[in-house]
Specification:
Elements: H1 33-46, H2 48-60, H3 70-90, H4 92-104, H5 113-127, E1 154-155, E2 158-159
Antiparallel strand pairs: 1-2
């Protein structure tokens, strides 16, 4: 048994130093993990150029660059927030159904395919954004479009 007793620091540390004026101000996205996961492929589709710029900046800074890449990071945040705003304005009910399903099913996408199909259709129809999984084989049906899922919920002996 350890002779030293554990110590826990419960203090909240907040840095009140203002950011330099050269870094643009931006509001936080303001979404928890389930809505972000639900919208993630659409954020990736619309914000690819901003994400690539940010990752290139971080690569050139050799993994550091917290301040050097803040401008690019703020552009990514702004773009992601705009995608979530557009989805909530145009497909609120489908979006809410999908992320609530994710929330209730431990963020497992395969548990929520029914709601995902409806959300994907609405977002494509109204915003023109399509879910594409990066690195998915070209000759295979993407996992989210398969009629019969490998993993699926069973209801009263019927596989859905």
């Amino acid at each position: 048994m350890a002779a030293r007793q554990p110590r826990f620091n419960q203090a909240v540390l907040i840095d009140t130093t203002p950011l330099p004026e050269s870094i643009p101000k931006v509001e936080e996205v303001g979404a928890s993990s389930a809505p972000l996961m639900s919208a993630s492929y659409f954020i990736g589709a619309r914000c690819k150029a901003y994400n690539d710029d940010y990752m290139m900046c971080k690569t050139e800074a050799h993994g550091r660059g917290e301040f050097e890449c803040m401008k690019e990071g703020r552009k990514v945040t702004r773009c992601a927030a705009s995608v979530i705003d557009d989805i909530t304005k145009n497909c609120l009910q489908e979006f809410r159904n999908h992320w609530e399903c994710l929330e209730d099913n431990n963020q497992q996408l395969w548990q929520c395919r029914k709601w995902e199909w409806r959300l994907n259709g609405c977002v494509f129809q109204k915003l023109g954004l399509e879910k594409k999984i990066p690195g998915a084989p070209e000759h295979e049906t993407p996992v989210h479009l398969r009629k019969r899922q490998i993993y699926s919920q069973q209801e009263k002996g019927v596989i859905t």
